[in-house]
Specification:
This protein has 647 residues and is mainly beta. The chain has four helices and 55 strands. Residues 75-132, 134-220, 226-319, 323-410, 414-502, 511-604 form the Ig-like domain.
Length: 647
């Protein structure tokens, strides 16, 4: 007769959960006959004096022993149809008729057979072990920023078992596959050619009968400034002709196209129409159509493409036969120290000459002034005293007809922040007082000031005050805290421009424990970790010391150096493996960053031998309890004496 069972073991199961399932299994188990013991699956959980707990999975098959006296049972595992003997090691061992497995892993899953033979015959019992582990999902890469038209791939990495199904979701909706959006396998999502609508949040969901998990990744379409792919050339027309000007641009997001005539934005009229469309390859085609051209339509036309990350422009002249004219010119504001460029908005064709005048004097007067062939006046390094005033351009046609336009150039001085008072960085101790001083040494009034901290608006609050005068702004810290560290920017603005400078406020902070070490106990041969963490600025170094006794002193603390058994991690944790009796004692964690007194705390480490630990063990279910009533032998229950495996 063959008796079988199926058991599902969760790797993260706690002791209380384990015990409950034992009692449930025991209550459901019934004897077929008084002479026949229970067959199938059992297991035991152990708890010990140091508070740890471990579940040990046990197969038992106590067959009719009087019929098989003198013959020990042995165990086989079904490896894809082939039976192989179960080999004992530090994790798997045999205890009479029980097969014990410590720390169950996925590879332990499968069918097991207990076999007993004698001269009369053979008996087998088969049971199945199903191992599960919590599902965890990670989507890689977690963040992608790609250009339109390129390919994108996401991979869903699933840990845990079993995995029955995997599903992909974009922005909370199932991913719809197509020739462009593909699933080569359930774990891989591939997009052949990216479009702007592909940006968003992607999730991979993994499921089994009892568990589910999901991972998330983000896809962004790279922002690309506009560029001009194709644009209209210079044209010469007769009155009453028709013309169509075209600009083709690309960019991401899709650019907006604006049309200009002599730097003024154009609008639609009865004769002038504008429109655009987007091609399949994400190009924006913009058109300007003019019907029944007249002489006044002549001038410099431009198309400007812009999006959130930049702009690009193109311009060319549209010449219409007719007498020369100059459009009204608005007044111009120039910034001191920069280059000024003023175009003469003329029309008519053909044109013989274009001249510029300053206060009635023909330009250029000096090397800083230049007049281009297209009628553009440029003045380098503008100065208020030398360059402010009235300017005019005069256009003469081949027929001798002239036209003149006039503008007034005002020169404004932008603010300049004095570097002498505004240093690149300042270092202060926590609890002290300090000031950030922003003084504008040059610039036209009125001036406006505002402050930024780490790029965000900063206002007075608590122990921080901001005082602003006509030409300065001062931030006063009455009592500096660690939260005050950061990058502070002073921004000064007037009608001409803005100026800004940034300083780094560094706050020194004495060490403080974030994780205080505590007393610990470890079983001899096990691993123990002593946690210690501290924060401060500069970041404190953490050292461990151990109290060492000698004949000359009552005890001194000596540094604990890394060794094959002791390792100090960068986060401050001290890990001691294969603990020995000599490891017991007092340990000191020290945190120091050179500010104030060294921060320290002393804790004790107790090392228990294996015998002490095993006598305090609790065993909840047979065969452990039935066959080993003597607590002194509990160290041999569910593990060999020499295995040195912790309870």
């Amino acid at each position: 007769m063959i008796h079988g069972a199926v058991f599902t073991f969760l790797q993260t199961e706690s002791t209380s959960q384990c015990k409950h399932r034992i009692e449930t299994a025991a209550a459901a188990d019934t004897d077929e006959k008084e002479s026949q013991a229970k067959e199938g699956l059992t297991f035991c959980c152990e708890g010990n004096a140091i508070g740890s707990s471990k579940c040990i999975f046990i197969f038992t098959s106590r067959l009719n022993m009087f019929r098989f006296t003198g013959f020990d049972p042995f165990w086989m595992k079904d490896e894809t149809g082939n039976l192989s003997a179960v080999q004992e090691d530090g994790r798997v061992w045999l205890l009479q008729e029980a097969l014990c497995i410590r720390r169950v892993v996925e590879e332990d899953a499968g069918k097991y057979q207990c076999i007993v033979r004698n001269s009369i015959g053979e008996k087998r019992v088969e049971s199945a072990l199903v191992v599960t582990a919590p599902l965890r999902v990670t989507v890689l890469p977690p963040h992608q920023v790609l250009n339109m038209g390129v390919a994108a791939t996401f991979t869903c990495n699933v840990t845990g078992y079993p995995v029955h199904s995997v599903a992909w979701v974009k922005d909370q909706r199932p991913v719809a596959t197509s020739e462009r959006v593909q699933l080569p396998s359930r774990d891989v999502l591939h997009i052949v050619s990216l479009r702007r609508e592909d940006r968003g949040m992607y999730q991979c969901f993994a499921y089994n009968d009892k568990d589910g998990a999901q991972g998330t990744a983000q896809l962004k379409i790279a922002d690309v400034p506009p560029s001009i792919v194709s644009a209209f050339p210079e044209r010469t027309l007769q009155p009453r002709d028709g013309v169509s000007l075209q600009c083709i641009v690309v960019g991401s997001p899709l650019p907006r196209v604006t049309w200009y005539l002599d730097s003024s934005v154009m609008g639609q009229t009865g004769r002038i129409s504008m429109g655009d469309y987007v091609t399949e390859d994400a190009r924006v085609v913009s058109l300007l159509n003019i019907s029944g051209v007249v002489a006044e339509d002549g001038g410099e036309y431009g198309c400007e493409a812009s999006n959130d990350v930049g702009s690009a422009s193109h311009s060319a002249r549209l010449n219409v036969f007719g007498p020369a004219f100059v459009r009204p010119m608005p007044n111009v504001t120039a910034i001191s120290g920069e280059t000024l460029m003023v175009k003469c908005p003329y029309g008519g064709y053909p044109i013989k000459s274009i001249r510029w005048f300053a206060n009635g004097i023909v330009l250029p007067l000096h090397p800083r002034q230049k007049v281009g062939q297209g009628g553009t006046l440029s003045i380098q390094s503008v100065h208020r005293e030398a360059d402010e005033g009235e300017y005019s351009c005069t256009v003469r046609g081949v027929d001798g007809h002239t036209a003149t336009g006039t503008t007034f150039v005002s020169v404004v001085v932008p603010p300049v922040i004095d570097k002498h008072y505004f240093r690149d960085s300042s270092t202060v101790d926590e609890g002290s007082r300090t000031k950030l001083v922003c003084i504008v040494s040059r610039g036209d009034p009125p001036l406006r000031f505002h402050w930024l901290k780490n790029g965000l608006p900063f206002l007075a609050h608590g122990d921080i005050a901001v005082q602003t005068t006509e030409d300065s702004s001062i931030v006063t810290f009455k009592k500096v805290t660690s939260a005050d560290r950061g990058l502070y920017s002073c921004v000064a603005t007037n009608a001409a421009s803005s100026a800004n400078m940034t300083t780094h406020l560094i706050v020194n902070v004495s060490p403080q424990f974030t994780v205080e070490p505590t007393n610990s106990t470890v079983v001899e041969g096990d691993t123990v970790r002593l946690d210690c963490a501290a924060v401060g600025f500069p970041a404190p170094s953490i050292l461990w010391k151990k109290l060492i006794y000698s004949e000359k002193t009552a005890g001194d603390f000596a540094y604990v150096h890394s060794s094959p058994r002791a390792h100090r991690y960068t986060n401050g944790t001290l890990v001691i493996s294969d603990a020995e009796e000599r490891d017991a004692g007092a340990y000191m964690c020290q945190a120091n960053n050179g500010l104030g007194a060294t921060l320290s705390k002393i804790v004790s480490l107790q090392v228990l031998d294996v015998l002490v630990a095993s006598r305090t063990a609790l065993v909840f279910y047979s065969p452990c309890k039935k066959h080993h009533q003597d607590s002194k032998n509990l160290s041999r229950v569910c593990r060999p004496e020499k295995a040195r495996m912790p309870l």
